[in-house]
From TrEMBL:
Belongs to the DODA-type extradiol aromatic ring-opening dioxygenase family. It holds the Pfam family LigB. Keywords: Dioxygenase, Metal-binding, Oxidoreductase, Zinc. The lineage of its organism: Eukaryota, Viridiplantae, Streptophyta, Embryophyta, Tracheophyta. This is Extradiol ring-cleavage dioxygenase class III enzyme subunit B domain-containing protein.
Length: 282
């Protein structure tokens, strides 16, 4: 009976729900310090997550800017360990634990969808847990750590269109109660960070504003080619790892998805914590 119950729990999130399609989201997780620094406004936003997004997902698929592989890879584990993929931070951060259940069947489903849509090589990592691009925001969004979590990697040697198409392949998951969450940073140039409270430089403000307008106006093709169409695209993202999760979230929501800015704040001068929700149009 225990085995049967376990199997039922694992298969629960694959049932087609009558509640409608899940939205997709992109969270700017910013600095790891958000885990302990109560002054960061985005932390307060994430703590109100369940008040804003009342629909509880059956499982969560996170595309994090902190997992970069040559080819798409999913973590296939029964329980996620906490990965401390940062250094030089206060010791208290290395004592934090967030160990949600893994989602091995969701991982298999992701692999199946990707391979059926032209991504011929998709790998499984059977040891990796959750990096801080996943556990830092989730520890505020779902502090009980009782929702199964699976991670999918990005490929920084590819482009925005590739990741948009990666998301398109995953769109059926929204019918299965899966929250598809991109986790990165709207601006991510660590070499330009300033002390907290510093003014926002013009280049960061211009890129952030361009992105907001492009998303709210549905100009997703422009976002796919942000590096050539956005002002200061390369300055905002010298390396695209933290931006590609956005493209996946957009692609998974559908071509005509409506974007909504759900949070906006700045820290360290150049770090935009802009976060977005994408709803499929009927």
């Amino acid at each position: 009976m225990r085995l049967l119950h376990s199997l039922n729990q694992k298969y629960r999130f694959f049932s087609i729900c009558k509640r409608g399609l899940m939205d997709t989201v992109y969270i700017s997780h910013g600095s790891p310090m958000m885990a302990i620094d109560e002054s960061i406004p985005a932390r307060k936003f994430l703590k109100t997550w369940q008040q804003i997004f009342k629909e509880r997902p059956n499982a969560i698929l996170v595309i994090s800017g902190h997992w970069d592989t040559k080819e798409p890879t999913v973590n296939v584990v029964n329980r996620n360990d906490t990965i401390y993929d940062f250094y030089g931070f206060p010791k208290s951060m290395y004592k934090l634990k967030y160990t949600p259940p893994g989602a091995p069947l969701l991982a298999k489903r992701v692999k199946e969808l990707l391979m059926a849509n032209g991504f011929k090589r998709v790998h499984e990592d059977k040891t990796r847990g959750v990096d801080h691009g996943t556990w830092v925001p989730l520890m505020f969004m779902y502090p009980e750590a009782d929702i199964p979590v699976c991670q999918l990697s990005v490929q920084t040697d590819r482009d925005g269109t590739y990741h948009y198409n990666l998301g398109k392949a995953l769109a059926p998951l929204r019918e299965e109660g899966i929250l598809i969450m991109g986790s990165g940073a709207t601006t991510h140039n660590l070499g330009t960070m300033q002390p907290s409270g510093s003014p926002v430089p013009s280049w960061a403000l211009q890129f952030d504003t361009w992105l907001k307008n492009a998303l709210l106006e549905g100009r997703y093709e422009d976002v796919n080619h942000y590096d050539s169409r956005a002002p200061y695209g390369k300055m905002a993202h010298p390396w695209p790892d933290h931006f590609y999760p956005l493209h996946v979230a957009i692609g998974a929501a559908g071509e005509n998805a409506k974007a909504k800015l759900v949070h906006h704040s700045w820290d360290n001068g150049t770090l935009s914590y802009a976060s977005y929700q994408f709803t499929a149009r009927k």
